[in-house]
Amino acid sequence: MPVSIVIGSQWGDEGKGKIVDLLSPEVDVVARYQGGANAGHTIVWENEDGSTEEFVLHLVPSGIFHEGVTCVIGNGVVLDPKAVMEEIEKIESLGIDVDGRLKISHNAHLIMPYHKAIEAAQEEERASASDDDEIGTTGRGIGPAYTDKFARTGIRVVDLLDEDALRRKLRRSLEEKNAILRDIYDAEALDVDRIVEEYVEFDQKIDPYVTDTSKYLSETLNDGGRVLAEGAQGSLLDVDFGSYPYVTSSHPTAGGCCTGLGVSPTAIDRVLGIAKAYCTRVGNGPFPTELENEAGERLRRKGDEFGATTGRPRRCGWLDLVALRYTSMINGFSELAITKLDILSGMESLKVCTQYRYDGKTTRRFPSEPQSLERVEPIYETLPGWDEDISDVRRVENLPLEARDYLAFIAEVLDVEIGLVSNGPRRDQIITDVQPMAAA
Ligand code: GDP
Ligand code: IMO
Ligand code: MG
Fold first, then answer.
1. Can you give the pTM of this predicted structure?
2. Helices 192-206 and 163-179: crossing angle, nearest 10°?
3. Ligand of minimum distance to the alpha carbon of 285
């Protein structure tokens, strides 16, 4: 198993962090391939005294809590140097040694102060426009940083090495960015010298971690090592396959792994899709199975559905198998992990969307363009719920029959095996003996 990918199959926050942490002891390297500090990957563990501890990772891969694992921030990530340094310090304050275990790609693009300033101004402008088309971003500068990357005006980690060149590049960039900030958005202009000073200081701190990570990954694989690629966000937020423009600016889907790390598609032999047992979405954009009622409120409350990065309440809804069939098609999931099944306990019945009604016709197609997705009406199958608290169950046979039927229904409709079921935030709250039940 040279490279496995863990991919969010919905709109993010499916529990990728928990699953990556769980699988880390089986691999040598965990590597993030896209996104930036917009991600919030939560890991919860139990201390020796029985208390639980939670850590939210934004940039450092979710394998960092396992000593023998090396973590890579790949070239496809947009790196906020301040955020990564703060995160490293926080991890080290728990007594975990990051030295020699974290590698940052020299080719990763940097989030600059003007990316955040421009994004904030853009979002404010969109929110106040008559058609109110605010995306509801996380405000981490992601879109503007990827814009510069593809416009070939970005600043990369490697650029920090040469202060004079950095100053020259920044001066050129800031001429344009300050004109945008001042003249278009009536916002404050930024000062070159202050940014250079700040980023040169980051360079000194980041330097020990910077390397050619694609070379490192290639050598690891050649030596028989195993790599777990950690996706951020979710497939339905992919810049090409999501409901554009209500998406993020990168490729959380499987292809992003190759370009974001520099690994070959032939090295990938496992594509694990992570799906919540229901759906959530943060930010704006169409969400066909959204529940804007007491049932949605209940899912939010019980599932503690508040953004791990911004604290915003997550929009909640029923499981959408039309959407999952679509992301399964794009990613070619070799198996699924279903998370947060415990949150469904206590619901009398559960609805699952299997088709949409669009323009008076039923369809199994997921139309990613928002103007169509806004108009689809979900068609549901209703399945019986279960009352029992399942958070202590460790074997599939001990799940209530209705919970097993719910899983079997998902596997059958999607024609994808369920390999893992998560029934609580902690590492030990996992059911691994799901097969062959789900395929039955
Ligand atoms: P990620 O972005 O995909 O890593 O997911 P987040 O960390 O943003 O959100 C998932 C949330 O659900 C976190 O608070 C996790 O601790 C929690 N979580 C993960 N799996 C489970 C589960 O099976 N049951 C419950 N109750 N919580 C879970
Ligand atoms: P993880 O990795 C959920 C959403 C934002 C917004 C859109 C664009 O924790 O699953 P951006 O800041 O990326 O330009 O925002 O994408 N978004 C996420 N939603 N989980 C995430 O990451 C997200 N990262 C971005 O809310 O709708
Ligand atoms: Mg998250």
1. 0.97
2. 130
3. 2
